[in-house]
Design brief:
The protein is elongated and about 70 Å long. The chain has one domain. It has nine helices and no strands. It is an all-alpha fold and 246 residues long. The two termini are 37 Å apart. Helix 3 packs antiparallel against helix 4, helix 4 packs parallel to helix 8 and helix 8 packs antiparallel against helix 9.
């Protein structure tokens, strides 16, 4: 099937997904479960990776920007802006595409090949809205919070690594974090996390919802979901940067 077919089918699925839910009480309960499964359960891995990346960025900035003409506080400033502009929004979303996206694709794919989705359709349930909408809302809702947690943990990682390695003092590092702060960078990155969150949830959901075959095909679809979502994240990162930084 061609790419135009997939694009058309994807948007037709979204129309079906965003129709009025069957029962609000069931939908809300499902939404809470998805927020816990897809969002809250990702906080640990986000925090750990961000702490280490904050430390690595701090060391890399020190070794590659060591210049007597540059003030030392630029290490904290560079770590802050790197985390806000790219790592905690784009790179973290690529990581979540692997964790959350593959989870969504494999779950829906398994339900499709075991005919659970077909059973819902026979009973008159809007399976797309019931299964996919809570996942999209949960991921989009949690993405900005994961971004904020990532930035905070990354800055803490730099604060720990910098003084321990002797490349920067605590006071100088904190001065760099507070220097020349641009609030627009945060707004820009939060906008990106909303878009990336939608891609991370909707693209794997589409691929999993329409999977055909057996267990082997579900595994392949899960891999395809991660790859396609990652490519789309990078593409929209380029587009959004071009549009919002004009």
């Amino acid at each position: 099937m061609g790419i135009l077919h997939h694009i058309g089918q994807y948007f037709l699925l979204l129309v079906k997904v965003f129709k009025k839910p069957e029962k609000k009480s069931i939908y809300i309960r499902q939404l809470v479960l998805e927020i816990e499964k897809l969002g809250i359960n990702s906080i640990g891995i986000v925090a750990i990776i961000s702490v280490f990346m904050g430390g690595i960025i701090t060391l890399q900035l020190t070794y590659n920007m060591s210049n007597p003409l540059m003030p030392t506080y630029i290490i904290g400033l560079g770590n802050r802006d790197t985390l806000i502009l790219e790592f905690s929004s784009t790179v973290l979303s690529l990581m979540l595409a692997g964790k959350v996206g593959s989870n969504i694709a494999s779950e829906l794919g398994s339900m499709r090949i075991t005919e659970q989705i077909d059973s819902m359709e026979i009973m008159g349930v809007n399976s797309a809205s019931y299964l996919i909408l809570p996942k999209i809302v949960a991921v989009v809702f949690m993405s900005p919070f994961l971004f904020i947690i990532s930035v905070g943990c990354g800055l803490i990682g730099g604060l720990i690594t910098g003084p321990l390695s002797g490349v920067v003092t605590v006071a100088t590092y904190i001065t760099g974090i507070k220097t020349s702060f641009v609030p627009f960078y945060v707004y820009f990155s939060i906008i990106k996390t909303f878009v990336f969150g939608f891609l991370i949830s909707s693209v794997p959901a589409y691929l999993g919802y329409y999977v055909q075959g057996g267990a082997l095909e579900v595994g392949r679809t899960s891999t395809k979901a991660v790859v396609n979502t990652s490519i789309l994240i990078l593409f929209f990162d380029l587009v959004l940067t071009q549009l919002l930084f004009k």
